[in-house]
Write a structure and sequence with these properties.
The chain has a five-stranded antiparallel β-sheet with strand order 2-25-24-23-22, with no helix packed on it. The protein has a four-stranded antiparallel β-sheet with strand order 5-4-3-27, with no helix packed on it. The protein has a four-stranded antiparallel β-sheet with strand order 6-7-8-9, with no helix packed on it. By secondary structure, the protein is α+β, with helices and mostly antiparallel strands.
């Protein structure tokens, strides 16, 4: 073999090996979602956004409306089933390019707007890259408390959206009012999606912490062999993270709990739940499909169930002695509201035969009203529904995009309140319609 031929064969072999290695790494990149998978998917999402909307829109912020969604912002389907009161909806205001909350009366008239500007509270921007609010609560003086799953601050804002206090930390997913007027929320150690998360009880007047319960240290580590309820041993090598996981592989290996709610059993409902006591905490962990009740004093787990919900949010104690769960039913095409008797674990889907259909793979809340109606927040569709106890439409809010009425913009929360809720009706000279 001549020297020239040998060099050519060596070159061909080297090129083949390099091509094979690149192909193999490409397969591994997709299969295991390693670098540069997140960069590639980011570019792909940007291309899809430009093709669909003609502009860069964060994933999940805008969705094309389906044929049976109203193309009005506020629609009353069954006037005789509407009670007097107000609705507050919170989402992305595409016209003003800012998150906001809107107060509507029961006739569908817009009465007030709260701007929610993350960068006014944290000029450096969110270290985890997300400025979409999630925890939200409207107070009787017209102020709101708001937090961010991927932000670095929680705040109470007045009627004009100006901060009354701010509180550093990753306070995420939910805000639940205790019977004494304090609030419970989740606080993540640098990230909402890490191993170390804390249930924090705080004073809404100042934001000051009252007490804190550590998921790993106070609950799981004390459970011994029962920690298997959380899918781990108490000696699991828990790790602290500096920020949100940046690719799906990291989420799968690190987001092993995904706590997304902490709710309180009021003394009014406590007699309906003989297994529990007033003040017990109802918890939700999306990754585990787990809903559980703990004693906040001794951190003992009193009850738990893995399913029948999938990727659930917002479990609530209800007036019929059941636990009601927003079942995202992720990956199954339709979300549901599931109610379970904690004594027997028998469950029902009361809205199954109703006319309403909704689906969101992430987030979601529901609220039972005095007349039996249910408010359902559907972030993945950019809308909020009020339905009867049988699942028929009463009211529908669609967060219409200013770009085109073919689209809805993201909603992240909503509340229904009575006419006598406010000390004085919220007003602000700078309030925008």
């Amino acid at each position: 073999m001549s020297e020239a031929l040998a060099k050519r064969l060596f070159g061909f072999s080297l090129a083949f090996l390099l091509a094979a290695a690149m192909f193999g790494y490409g397969v591994a990149t997709v299969k295991y979602e390693i670098w540069p998978y997140s960069a590639i998917t980011g570019v792909a999402q940007a291309v899809r956004s430009l093709k669909e909307f003609g502009e860069l829109v964060p994933e999940g912020r805008r969705v094309r409306a389906q044929d049976d969604w109203s193309r009005e912002s506020f629609t009353i389907h069954t006037p005789e089933m509407i009670e007097y009161g107000y609705y507050v909806f919170a989402g992305w205001d595409s016209e003003n390019e800012i998150h906001a909350a809107w107060l509507y009366d029961n006739q569908g008239d817009l009465r007030h707007t709260w701007p929610i500007d993350y960068y006014a509270l944290d000029p450096d921007g969110p270290s985890n890259g997300g400025d979409t609010p999630h925890p939200f609560y409207l107070l009787e003086d017209g102020s709101i408390i708001v937090g961010w799953d991927a932000g670095d601050v929680m705040a109470r804002l007045d009627e004009c959206g100006e901060p009354m206090w701010t509180k550093d930390g990753v306070f995420h997913h939910s805000l639940s009012r205790a019977e004494d007027g304090s609030f419970w929320t989740w606080r993540g150690d640098q990230t909402a999606y890490g191993h170390y998360n804390y249930m924090e009880n705080f004073n809404p007047d100042t934001g000051q912490k009252i007490q804190e319960i550590a998921l790993v240290e106070d609950v799981i580590a004390r459970m011994g062999s029962s920690s298997a309820v959380f899918g781990v041993r108490p000696d699991h090598p828990f790790e602290r993270m500096e920020r949100d996981p940046d690719d799906m592989k990291s989420f799968l290996t690190r987001d092993i709990f995904h706590p997304n709610d902490v709710d309180v059993l009021y003394s009014e409902f406590a007699p309906l739940f003989p297994m529990f006591e007033a003040g017990d905490l109802l918890l939700s962990f999306r990754t585990l499909n787990l809903v559980a009740v703990i004693d906040p004093d001794d951190r003992r787990i009193k009850w738990w169930s893995h399913g029948p919900w999938i990727g659930q949010h917002d479990p609530d104690f209800t007036a019929d002695g059941k636990i009601s769960v927003f079942n995202n039913n992720t990956g199954k095409g339709r979300s549901e509201i599931i109610k379970m008797d904690p004594m027997t674990k028998e469950f029902s889907n009361d809205l199954f035969d109703g006319e309403v259909s909704f689906s969101t793979a992430y987030k979601g809340k529901h609220q039972y009203l005095p007349n039996g109606n249910i408010i359902i927040v559907v972030p993945g569709e950019g809308r909020v529904l009020e339905v009867t106890s049988e699942g028929d439409k009463v009211m529908e809010f669609n967060n219409l995009s200013s770009v085109s009425r073919e689209y809805n913009e993201h909603v992240f929360n909503a509340m229904r309140i009575g006419l006598d809720y406010f000390q004085t009706a919220p007003q602000c000279s700078g309030s925008r319609p």
